[in-house]
Amino acid sequence: QVPLVESGGGLVQAGGSLRLSCTASARLFAINSMGWYRQAPGKQRELVAAITSGGSTNYADSVKGRFTISRDSAKNTVYLQMNSLKSEDTAVYYCQMRGYSTYWGQGTQVTVSS
């Protein structure tokens, strides 16, 4: 398995912003989808946003208009810009990359204080 390294999580006040980054530690081939998931305590992991190799994006309804996903395919890196954060965005955020195999990051904590 190729580790995905996430960064950018932390503690922020409601209304603030954070930018998450996720980079593969080795060159990955034929990655057709990159995405971010999150898991809050006591809840199932859910899709937050995803982006295909063609640039098509998909967002959870709860984050539309506030979060933006982008990717740098040459660097095997995916970003998640999170604006207007709410307390309900508090969760561990995981990145995922899918190609011939599916790769996951170790998770980064995002805590939004109200």
Care to describe what's here?
This protein is an all-beta fold. 0% of the residues lie in helices and 54% in strands. The chain has no helices and eleven strands. It has strands at residues 4-7, 10-13, 18-24, 33-39, 46-52, 57-59, 67-72, 77-82, 91-98, 102-104, 108-113. Strands 2, 4, 5, 6, 9, 10 and 11 form a seven-stranded mixed sheet that branches. The chain has a four-stranded antiparallel sheet with strand order 1-3-8-7, with no helix packed on it. The protein is globular. The chain starts with a strand and ends with a strand. The model has no long low-confidence stretch (mean pLDDT 94).
Spans of at least 5 consecutive residues whose pLDDT stays below 50 are none
Number of strands: 11
| Total DSSP helices | 0
Q: How helix-rich are the residues, as a percent range?
A: under 10%
What is the 3D form? globular
* Percent in strands: over 45%
Rg: 13 Å
Q: What's the pLDDT, averaged over the residues?
A: 94
What is the H/E order? Answer: EEEEEEEEEEE
Given helix and strand content, the structural type is mainly beta
Task: Summarize the main sheet.
Answer: 7 strands, mixed
Report the span from N to C terminus. 38 Å
Annotate the secondary structure layout.
Elements: E1 4-7, E2 10-13, E3 18-24, E4 33-39, E5 46-52, E6 57-59, E7 67-72, E8 77-82, E9 91-98, E10 102-104, E11 108-113
Parallel strand pairs: 2-11
Antiparallel strand pairs: 1-3, 3-8, 4-5, 4-9, 5-6, 7-8, 9-10, 9-11
Question: Which labels suit this protein?
Answer:
mainly beta, four-stranded antiparallel beta sheet, 114 residues, globular
